[in-house]
Structure formats: structure tokens, C-alpha cells
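Much of what follows relies on a compact textual record of a protein's fold. Here is one such record, which you should read through line by line:
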Amino acid sequence: MFAEDDAMKAAFCSIVLFALSVIAPARGADLPFVKDVDAQPLWAQARRVMEALDYLGNPISAETKASLQTAADKGDGPALVKAIQDAFDSLCLVGVNINPESRVKVAPGPAAPQLVEQGWRQFLLKVQNDAGVTAQLQVSSPNARPMANSPQNQLADLWFDGQLYSAQPLTKNLTGLALEYRIIQLYSRDAGKREARLGFNVGQGTQDLGFRDTIDILFTSVPARDVTLHVLDEIGQPATARFTIRDKQNRVYPSQAKRLAPDFAFHPQIYREDGEVLKLPDGTYSVEITRGPEYVAHTRTLTVNGPQTLTAKLERWIDPSKLGWWSGDHHIHAAGCAHYTKPSEGVHAPDMMRHCLGEDLKVGCNLTWGPCFDYQKQFFTGEDDKVSKYPYLLRYDIEVSGFGSHQSGHLCLLRLKNQMYPGGTSDKHWPTLCLNTLRWAKKQGAVVGPAHSGWGLKQDGTTLPTYQIPPYDGIGANEYIVDVTHLVPGPDGNFIPAVDFMSTVDTPYVWELNMWYHTLNCGFRTRASGETDFPCIYGERVGLGRSYVKLDGKLTYADWCEGIRNGRNYVSDGFSHLIDFKADSTAVGENESELKLAQPATIKLSAKVAALLNEKSDESIRAKPFTEKPYWNLERARIGQSREVPVEVIVNGYPVAKKTIVADGKMQEIDFDVKIERSSWVALRILPSSHTNPIFVLVGDKPIRASKRSAEWCLKGVDQCWSQKEKFIAPAEHDDAVKAYDHAREVYRKIVAESDVE
């Protein structure tokens, strides 16, 4: 967390403070006395240091402050300079001398090098600035490198962390005064005796001249306190919860720089289960406790001054599983993303399972992909992983990403029986045409769809639907525009749709939904599923994008995937819910989601609806453009500053009715009467937080041909996609690709001809 590396500083800036209220006896000779310094600016700088120490909870004693003020009041400059040094030098861990050539040498100060396990202590630095430089004093330590991405054999030495305090009332840069004092904050991962090397410079780099600019210090770190966690769910059963622990300076415990799986260095939170023990130094902490979006977050104040127990009684505001709706995230990565210590290996099933448990995510799909393929492929079994704890299921499947057809759009392949495309044992031989991969997956009964659908489908503005032709230059639902027109053989040889679902929630909603709406308007029945792409798009938590699937019996992974294929689900960020959506007596996902009418008629749409917003709006979210994360978030659905959000009826892509609900966490019945003039698809949404899958209302058994403009948009999309993707097709598959794209053009031309509604 040292200043020479801003990226490291940002990554490390969250750890826990321990206030040093008593300075231990001196450990060595006094630091050199500095005479040639003006008293008035030195006194002003000393007062700022004292203010900062007060803020940090490590104040100079009242007696010392009074003594210094008395010296200042007397107006004797040399006496004041001496009084300041007499008071501050005893608090200094290191003395730093900057010579006229801006070279640095350091010496030990009198302060005892005592730290505390899992916490912070503050010391002063005495800076004798003979060069009068106003550069930033920089500090480094090989012992302060992050544990994440470090070799296993180096972890024992990476016990240390630190930062120079440079916030108000201090500044990042030196004042240029011949003498000033700076505050250094040091953290210890361990208890006991530990040695660390500290190096200092002012932009000249290290010197390596007799190690004058570095110092080796043997620290003694006193043990922290044990805090035993007692975690109970809403019915009093032991559970796993999410804890975010901060000190008075808003630093996070435990140090993110010193985390290894199952704790992730890119998270402020940790996940702990009933009976586990935390270590915290003495002090006062703010602890936020929750368990994903279906739970109410509570913040507790925890004062540690000895061993103790922290009891966390979790509180739900909604439980869709009691109504048969089971949450899941079909796109999680256990490896491959740069966040992980070894992206080529990643973390293991117990680590990901802890995160799913802590977010109350019932189904987690661990998708193996390119960078980690050869390592993570060993965990695929075609069955639930053994770490699963009903009703929490973890399963390994595949994302075609970083290999094969990925340049035409990544693919999520769920419920695979065989993870390896025929012809090899790795990822080097896979098809470059998405459709060929889909044929192989569908033949074994997989449930499939494009990943992070919006990439490559950029649209301007927030209008839905829009008729701008996207660039098709990304890795989302690009070749989908072709694949959706194809039927391929299923396990029994019968022809079935090549694509089952569109992934939603983790890319801008207009880009995702626009493609989906247009293909629904052409009569295709692709369903929507919610994903996070953790931690590559969203690293905050698993389950930021979810599918809630309705099952009549016991939750199984196979049935959960089948529910997505049938559209018996809604997608959500978890903070709003559209449960039991029906059109007359037809429930979404049942009987192919079809409601048949002999002639145009008014139908009744109904659902159980609930949402939860804080009473005060989060302006930091509302102010963001829709293309910035979070792409889907209930906060955006607010009406003004209220907790009111709109529930809209969508017919053929357009809103036709709306009712407003209060997002107070209470479930309510909602219904609409909607006139259907021709075969159409209907859905409900709370944009941009949740969306049902469609119910297909067929009038006179005619197919849905809702919009000629949509069919023309799709036809133009095929040509645009080909212009971008042809170059990525392997020569051996080029003829397949030409036929696949020509087939799509023929299908869309036919739909254009059959559509009489603009």
C-alpha cells in the first residue's frame, strides 16, 4: 500500500486500524537535532500532524499538547523548535534524511517497533529535508507485496503492509521545510517477531549504496483477539453470511492485501459460517451483516477489548424458494480471470461454494474456459460437485471463451454430459463456427445460450426496441442472430432450437433486450436467463445476475436448467421479483408458455410482485449512464426520490400498461387487462431490475409475426455479422458458415414476407 505504486495503494487501502495510545520505551539512539528550521511553519505542520493523529485515534497526550502550546505562546522560536522535536522524536520509527542531491538515507528512531496481529499501528517519521524538495516521499517494502498472485514459497515473508497517511489535514507531497514529520501506518498479518525491510525515496529511486535508503526492522506483533461468530438464518439454523468489517477510518478487515481463497483480495467482504473465529485487534468496528439480495442488511457496532462472540441473526425480506422459485447464476468462473492468484488454475469448489452459501445462491454454475481449461477440466463430472449442500448446488460446465468459436460470441454450455468436443483433450480443436459447437452440445441434451449478450450489440440511447444496426464486433450474442434460426438434432434425433436462452443482467440492458425483443417479434422463442460472469464482468459478488426458476418438486441441477430452457423463470438482480406470472390461466413456462385464443380478446395478466429499496435514493447509482455498471439495478427504477417503481406490461417489445408499486419489501398481487389483437408475446418487467420470460398468445393459431421492421432488422444483422465474423472461421468450416448464414437470410426473408405489421 506504499505510495510508489498507486495501483497497489488502491488495492491495499482497506485494512483495520489499531490505535497506539502508549509509546513503548526507546529502542536506540536519539535522532539528530535539526536547528536550521523556522519555528512558525514547523509549528503549523506539527499542529496538522496532531490533528491527523487525533482523527486516526492515536492522539498525542493532552499534557504534551499543552506543553507545546505553552512553548508556542512564549514566542521563543528556538525553544519551540526544540520542544517539538523533544515531543515528536520519541514517536518516530525511522529518521529520513534527504541530502542536497535528493539522495535519501535512513536511521532507526526511538519508537519501539511494536505492531498488532491483523491490525494497524501508527508511527511518525522524522524527515530532515536538506534539499528542500516538495516531491512525494515514497515508501516500499518487499514484505508488503500482495499475497494474491505471489508464489506459495514467498507467502511467509508477505506478512507486512503499510501506507503513508496523506489525507487531510496532511498532503501527499513534502512541504519543502527543512524539518517535518509524517505519519506511517503499518499492518501485521501475524503475531510474534517478524522482520521487514523499509525503503524510502523522493522520486530518485533506490540507491543501493550501502543500503543507506533502506532499513531492516525487527518488529514484535502482539496477538489479536478471537471473535467467535454465531451465525443463524431466519429460522434459527446455522448459516453462512457476508461480513464487511470496517474501522473508524473506513478500512476493511481483514487486509485485502493479505487474503487467500476462500477470501478474495478484490472483495471488501468475507464469508463466514456459524462457529468460525475472526481475529480483531482491540478497537471499535462497524460490521455489515447480510446474505445476498433476499436478506436485509444490518450494521452492528462491535467493540473488541477481549475474546468475545458476535451473534448474527439473519433477516429475510423475501424467500422465493418457499413458492418454488429457486435462484441460480449460470455464469461463474472459478479461474481464468486476473483477479485470482493463479488465473490459469484459480480456486477450487469449496471456495466457490462458500461464496454461493454466503449469497444464498441456490445454484452456482462454475464454467471452465480458455486460460484455465487444462487445469479446471479435471473437476468436471457431469454431476453436482461433492461440495454441494442441498439446497445449494455447485456444478462444473463450460463457457466457450478464449478458444473455438468465441470470436463470434461466447457460449454457455450447461448440463453437459461430456465436456470435451470430439477430436482432442484440450481447447485447441474446437469449432470456429458457434453453430457447430451448439450442434454437439444439443445432441447430448445441454441447455445453451450466448454469454454476456450485449457485447458487440451497442445501441445509442435507452429506447426499446431500437432499429439501429449494431456493429456485431464483440463476443456477446453476435452469431446468435444466425443460430436462432436453426433447428438441430436433440438427444432423441428430433429437431430442436439450436439456442435455448439469452444471457442477461451483466451487460447493458438495452443492448441485450433489443436483440431479444426483435427475435421474439419474429416468432422465435429464446428465453432469458440471468448471469453475473463473476468475477470477469462483475467481481463484487456471485449472483448479481440471477435466474429464479419455478420447480414443482425437489431442486435438481438438471431440472433447474430445464426450467430455463422452458422459460419457467424470471431474471433479476434479486431486489425485485415477478413471481407466478400468468396470462389468464396459462403460467409462464408451462405448456410451452402458450395461450391460444380463437379471436382477438382481452386477457388478464397477473403476478405476485415485490421489491425492496432503501428509503433514500443512492444518487451514485442513479447518476450513472445505463452503459456503466451496474447495468441492471433496481435503484434506476425509482420514480424521483421515492420508493416507487413501475411494473410494465410489454407486448411485442413495447410497454402498453403500467402500475406503480412501493418497493417496501411487501409482496402484492398485481393484474392488468390487456387487449390482444393478433398473435403476440407478452411479459412483465421492472426495468432495469427484473424481467419475466414471455407468454406466447396465439390468435387463431397464427405464428407470431409482430413486426416487419424487426424481421428486416434481423436480416440486416445477418449481413453485418458476416462482415465481422467471416475472417474468424476456419477454412474447413467456411462452407458450413456460408450455409448457416444463407439459411438465416432465407428464414428472415420469409418472415418479412409473412409480416403485415410494421
